[in-house]
Amino acid sequence: MENVIAETIAACEWYGSSFLVISDNVFSPLLYYSYFGSLIPSVLIALFVFLNGKNRLPNKLLLLMVAAFGGWIFFNLVTWATELPPMTMFAWSFLIILEPLVYFFALYFVYAMVFERDFSFWQKVLFASPLFVTFFLTPTKFGLLGYDLSNCDRAAVEGIVATYGYALEFIYILLIVGFFGYFWLKSKDAIARKRATLITVGIVLFLLSFSAGNILEVFTENWLIGQYGLFGAPIFVGFLAYSMVKYKTFNTKVLGTQVLVAALWVLVLSMLFVRNIENMKYVIAGTLVLVTIFGVQLIKSVKELEHQKVRLQKANDQQQSLMRFINHQVKGFFNRTRIIFDALRTNEYGELPAPARELVETGFATDTEAINMVRSLLDAANLHDGTVEFKKISLDLRALVSDITSQVQEVAKAKGLTLSIEAKEEARVFGDLTHLAQAVRNIIENSIQYTERGVVQVALTTQGKNAVLTVTDTGLGLTQEDMRRLFTQGGRGEEAKRRNVNSTGYGLYITKKIVTAHGGDVVVHSAGRDKGSTFTITLPLHKA
Amino acid sequence: MVEKGKVKEKIFLVILFVAFLYAVVEIYVEYIVREDFTYFLTEEEVPNQFDANAYLE
Fold it and tell me: Distances from the Cα of A333 to the Cαs of A319, A347, A380, A511, A522, in angstroms?
């Protein structure tokens, strides 16, 4: 019997194969084009997406789906290429195991994308359990009945589990459509519905093109036509790329472009390997379709980016014009009323009755506060735009810190705080007097403002080539989150926001900008809420 | 503390993965190592998968 088998195999005159997949047994080089042309873009997309968000469930599922798809492509090529019956049996069995897995991951992926949540435990059990049947029965006769040597086709004879797998795939597609339909009926969000449509249509097209071999075989009994069905797989790539660009599905606009370019590169490269000129027509036609789809999407996204840029520029111009308006008008209004209040409170128009004096003092204080607020907003805007000109000179930081500390001493006293200063060494720095004074004042006043009781300690030392100014308070303290955003525009601690509703949150941002413009840095440390804070400004010393 | 549901879920996924590995190892041993399968030399010998007799030894 063994001799008969060996003789029959020899009579078939199959070609040998190398690397399991390269062989003249493969009926057409187009098969490589159709398989790798769909696999490589899919793998690139899945990898890019995964690397851009390793913890996102849809990203993991897309990678798993494409991994199973890649395995399927490889083992299917093995079945076409190999001349060894045991290898055919092994690879064919692998296909029976992998195919439903691709569909399962596709279902899971669509669910996670459309509903933006994971399957429940019981959904996982319900949808994954049918896979146990293929896992446990494929290695038995129910998977493959044997090897068909009757017509030299290098084919295995499939058992009932293979058909069970096809039925399972059909059910998974129905579930995908079902979940999509359910979402479509329930959701009122037009954008979410459109996104779900793109993802579902893309996946279903991908799966159908993947199954095309099986479907076409049923109707035409011709395996060969079905093998080109995979040309449809890049349509899925296109849909996915489109949904990325349009809806920022994976939060990476660049990703879509990179993948599109990589996919086109691979497709054009594969033309080099098509020797048959007749086949070349199909390759070019396929590539043309892809270039059209991807090209239109690229142009669209670039146009959209350009429009956004123009809109942003316009909005920016409007904002700047508003800032100029504030500068020239609003500040002017406050200034004028402040001058009036000042004249009244200094009795330029005679002694005021006590109740009127109280009102005038409140008006004067309010106007002063408003002017400071507008000024800090303008300063922040100018520092942000880089339009501030620093007039740097060699100055004594110790004198500056001492001056400011004595200026704010009254404010600290009024709150019942002890404001102390320790500045024994001279610390000469090269900087803009007005702006550095503003930076120092900001952090000292900030500590006074957010300390209810206790002390605010100011200390100036030199460490190596730097002057180090620390302001330590026994105030509100900061959480890790507070510290992270404290020096950003409008960034304030949560507790600080609650207690001081009038603050703009720009003071420390301005400080940071000024200090960094002088080659220094400002940091804050706090052991936590109600445990006080320490602000540290470091500036390079200037050698006169 | 890990949620109870998560533990159940992990156990299920591990079982699924082990079943997949079992299938891969088993087909490798069955077909590559032992080469234990039937050759059908003529068209008449090729069985129909829907025929129960095809699965009997």
Answer: 20, 22, 21, 27, 35
